[in-house]
Design a protein that fits this description.
Elements: H1 2-16, H2 35-46, E1 60-62, E2 68-75, H3 83-94, E3 98-101, H4 122-139, E4 140-148, H5 150-161, E5 167-171, H6 185-194, E6 199-201, E7 218-220, H7 221-240, E8 247-253, H8 261-273, E9 278-284, H9 304-315
Parallel strand pairs: 2-3, 2-4, 4-5, 5-8, 8-9
Antiparallel strand pairs: 1-3, 6-7
Helix pairs in contact: 2-4, 4-5, 4-7, 5-7, 6-7, 7-8
């Protein structure tokens, strides 16, 4: 009996350490054939922004009214919305880019304490990323996808899956959590998917008043687990095969206390081992004392006057 119980416990641990359902998270590309089709598909995304969505959080398109040489897709972080990237996106628009900033499902609602965020799934993240890349094909001759945190994981997935991306830019991607040892990431992810959902304040001392004003002040364990599902699937794919995107840029923050930079380094190593020639990395030093969210101007003590010029120079190459 002791042997049987021990064996069952070992089997349970093995199962809980397996990446959850990676085969469901594959790309199904259907690229826009021209600018007019791209605009119709952007409008379809915007039509998903019901009155429940905060008006400044709706899917945003900055367009020069025609297909241009370069298009940038910006993917926002978990519990935030397109407003996070609006100011940085405008800088690229002024450089001649068409810029698409889609709203991720269950994010950007006017009710900042909504429980809807717990409904987020990795499949939705994949579907939105695919659609954004598809649309971008009709907006520009060359496509760059960049994302922060959750958006960084979505961008990493796109880099692995989509050969029609010219450049993928991962900014502080959530391949794991700072507080979770890297080897336990799959175990924690699977447990979070099995256990009842719970919420955690971003800023416990501020509670509901935590910044930014358009974002949710707390995160859902189920939503976070779904982001990690996609992260684990992307990491597994990176170990197994060369990514489809020809150029990848990974930007990290040495002082980040939200995500596990070791796991980001691991996926960079996998891409390097699989022969990615144009693979660049850049790290903001810990002495800068940057927030995990280095993008949103509404974050207190944000240093966008320092950060934005560096990001523009790195991406616009």
């Amino acid at each position: 009996m002791v042997i049987l119980i021990t064996a069952l416990l070992l089997l349970a641990v093995l199962i809980l350490n397996m990446p959850p359902h990676p085969k469901r998270l594959i790309s199904k590309p259907h690229p826009a054939q021209n600018y007019e089709e791209a605009i119709k598909r952007v409008e379809a995304l915007q039509n998903l922004d019901t009155p429940a969505v905060n008006p400044i959080c709706r899917t945003l398109l900055l367009t020069h009214q025609q297909k241009v040489q370069r298009t940038l897709v910006l993917l926002h972080g978990y519990t935030n919305c397109p407003q996070q990237f609006r100011r940085l996106g405008t800088k690229f628009f002024e450089l001649g880019y068409n810029v698409l900033i889609p709203r991720v499902p269950h994010n950007g609602l006017a009710d900042r304490l909504t429980q809807d965020q717990a409904k987020l799934t990795a499949e939705e993240l994949v579907a939105l990323t695919d659609e954004a890349v598809d649309i971008a094909q009709g907006l520009g001759e060359h496509v760059t996808v960049a994302g922060l945190s959750m958006g960084g994981v979505m961008t990493g997935w796109a880099a692995q899956q989509r050969s029609d991306i010219d450049q993928a830019v991962l900014i502080s991607p959530t391949f794991g959590l700072y507080i979770v040892p890297a080897p336990l990431t799959a175990l924690v992810t699977n447990l979070a998917l099995l256990l009842p959902n719970f919420y955690r304040w971003w800023h416990p001392d501020l509670g509901v008043d935590g910044p930014p004003p358009q974002g949710y002040p707390r995160l859902a364990s189920r939503g976070l687990a779904q982001i990690l599902r996609l992260a684990l699937a992307t990491q597994a794919a990176a170990r197994a095969a060369k990514p489809a995107a020809p150029a990848i840029l990974v930007i990290t923050n040495a002082g980040d206390t939200a995500v596990n930079n070791k796991l980001t380094a691991d996926i960079v190593r996998s891409w390097h081992n699989n022969g990615v020639e144009n693979l660049r990395s850049y790290e903001f030093e810990a002495a800068l004392q940057l927030d995990h969210d280095i993008i949103d101007p509404a974050i207190p003590d944000q240093q966008i006057d320092l950060i934005y010029p560096i990001l523009v120079e790195l991406i616009n190459q």
